[in-house]
TrEMBL record:
This is Transcription termination/antitermination protein NusA. The keyword Cytoplasm applies. GO terms for molecular function: DNA-binding transcription factor activity; RNA binding. It holds the Pfam family NusA_N. One of its GO terms (biological process) is DNA-templated transcription termination.
């Protein structure tokens, strides 16, 4: 009973860790063998009998009976006199099994046993958590906000596992309160000092892809395939979809009537603007679709260099470039081509870099950031829109336009 009582005291935290009895007993045996090695130098002549149903554990030391005065290894040999104290009819050469009580190991050894057991159980627990979440990498997961820090939000799931949502994996418009549920994908799981670090992301393209799987039955069933996803988190995304069934319109199925199907995804992503595009192996047609909503007049492609020169009517240029240059940048990422935009019927345009005598380089760079590299490209824009899209003051923009306008008036 002594052993049983002590084992029960060791396992008092078992239920908190949700570790099953069989696993606990296996860990106990390993811990006790380590303790025996420390006390006796070896453990291979010991039998440890574990009964997981009763929670019982017995330790037996096996030794050979030798004549009195001939004991050379006290761990493996026992004198005839000592053996006969256990059983009076033992003879030299026979095997003796003697039960070892936990108290025989000493108080310090028992305290060390307990600490070692706790450590082993934590290690087992952490290994299980690591394996569990490693299998969930790339999958959507929901957890509750537990603590809000400057650089990350700490989440807890229903089992009390800690998940980290770093600031750079949050959508810019994200705002969470303590106790609120958060969805994202498990981006990575690493063991750091035997403790699993679980990272969640809401900005990864995979999160948008998994939302499509959750919200659109045809995607979940495999009738529609997502070929590629590119994003500027919280701003704009482009999703190329395809179907091997000609009866299914993949874009229509994903968007739904008046956007009904995609609405919940857009709301989850902070009103991110999502363009759903029909995938095609025809690269020219794919580029044309990727630059939507702009209507393209013609394309000149270099398939080896992966470049495309796109001709558009002047009023379509701003649509192709998009707010902050997001549309043309995402179209390039989606198709794998570097796309340059040209205005149809504009031969007398002048590149902005030709005006460095009158316009500072950093100002020209601000226009280039949003895809405006020529004089007429800037002059076609609305001043208020340029103020929103660049870091330039209204007065600076008007001064630049005056300089550019004078070039054509001459």
């Amino acid at each position: 009973m002594e052993n049983i009582a002590l084992i029960e005291s060791f396992s008092e935290f078992k239920d908190d860790k949700l570790i099953d009895r069989v696993t606990l007993m296996a860990i106990l045996e390993d811990v006790f063998r380590n303790a025996l090695k420390k006390k006796y130098g070896e453990d291979d002549n010991f039998d440890i009998i574990v009964n997981p149903d009763k929670g019982d554990l017995e330790i037996w030391r096996n030794r050979v009976v030798v004549a009195d005065g001939e004991v050379e290894d006290s761990n493996r040999e026992i004198s005839l006199t000592q053996a006969r104290k256990i059983e009076p009819d033992f003879e030299v050469g026979e095997d003796v099994s003697e039960e070892v009580k936990l108290a025989d190991l000493g108080r310090r050894a028992i305290l060390a046993l307990r600490q070692n057991l706790i450590s082993k159980i934590h290690e087992h627990d952490n290994t299980n958590i690591y394996k569990q979440f490693k299998d969930l990498e790339g999958e959507i997961y929901t957890a509750e906000v537990h603590h809000i820090r400057h650089r990350a939000i700490i989440l807890l799931d229903d089992e009390g596992n800690e998940i980290v949502l770093p600031k750079d994996r949050q959508i810019p418009s994200d705002f969470f309160r303590k106790g609120e549920n958060v969805r994202g994908i498990i981006e990575s799981v690493e063991l750091k000092g035997n403790k699993p670090t679980i990272i969640m992301s809401r900005t990864a393209p995979g999160f948008l892809e998994k939302l499509f799987e959750q919200e659109i039955p045809e995607v979940f069933d495999g009738l529609i395939t997502i070929k590629k996803v590119v994003r500027v988190p919280g701003e704009k995304a482009k999703v190329a979809v395809d179907s091997y069934d000609d009866r299914i319109d993949p874009v229509g199925a994903c968007v739904g009537m008046k956007g009904s199907r995609i609405h919940s995804i857009v709301r989850e992503l902070g009103n991110e603007n999502i363009d759903v595009i029909n995938f095609t192996n025809n690269e020219q047609l794919f580029i044309t679709r990727a630059l939507s909503p702009a209507k393209i007049t013609s394309i000149k492609m270099n398939e080896e260099a992966k470049t495309a020169e796109v001709m558009l009517k002047p009023e379509e240029v701003s649509k192709a470039i998009g707010r902050g240059g997001h549309n043309i940048r995402l179209a390039g990422q989606l198709t794998g081509y570097e796309i340059d935009v040209y205005r149809e019927g504009v031969e007398e345009d002048v590149e902005l870099k030709e005006f460095t005598d009158e316009i500072e380089d950093w100002v020209i760079a601000e226009f280039s950031k949003i895809g405006l590299d020529t004089a007429k490209a800037v002059l076609e824009q609305d001043v208020d829109d340029l103020v929103r899209r660049t870091d330039l003051e209204e007065e600076t923009i008007r001064d630049v336009m005056a300089v550019l306008r004078s070039e054509f008036e001459e």
